[in-house]
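Re: the 216-residue chain
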Amino acid sequence: MPGTVDGLILASPRMDDRNISELTTEKPVVVVNREVDGVPCVVPDVDRGISQTVRNLAGQGHRKVLYAGRPGESWMSGRRWAGIEAACDWSRVDAVCMDSMSPTVEGGRKLAREVVEAGVTAVIAYNDLLAIGLMQELQAAGISVPGTVSIVGFDDIFGADFTSPPLTTIRSPLHECGVRAAARLLAGLAGGHETRKAMLPIETELILRGSSGPIP
């Protein structure tokens, strides 16, 4: 453990819970985008944005939605899939999950063939990069977005609206997560009282753009 820092903010860590808990015995720790028992955490509420997305897709006639998840043991990917499963069940939409090779543009490109073979009309990707890569590869193969497949990303990163068509996405309060995590860490260093989990008052929300639409 480096001696030059007084505390740690772990953003979407892939470490197991035991190792994270052990870190807290050495320095104050705040975890972002993941829940760990006994450790202060900042977790945005994904349910609102996911529910808005699934209701919108269902209203446009989609009856089978694929979640393109992050590979490996990603707590947030699992949390988003659970939210999509629940929302699809409520809206009577079939939901299937498929892990990408990596949550990147290249990972999205490599997933395109499997998405087509799955026979879905809409995809919700783990993040915007994955969604952009998938959209680019489908278009390169002559498959219309959103004419044949609607695509929704997650996070609303800078440049998500620069694509053609602009990417529909679920906006996640990434900046607010960082601010809240830093405030919690500083409060802990100052000896302030910290609750173990904080749901952000700013929730996720659907940002409708051109990459999603009615089924053909």
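The chain has a mean pLDDT of 90.
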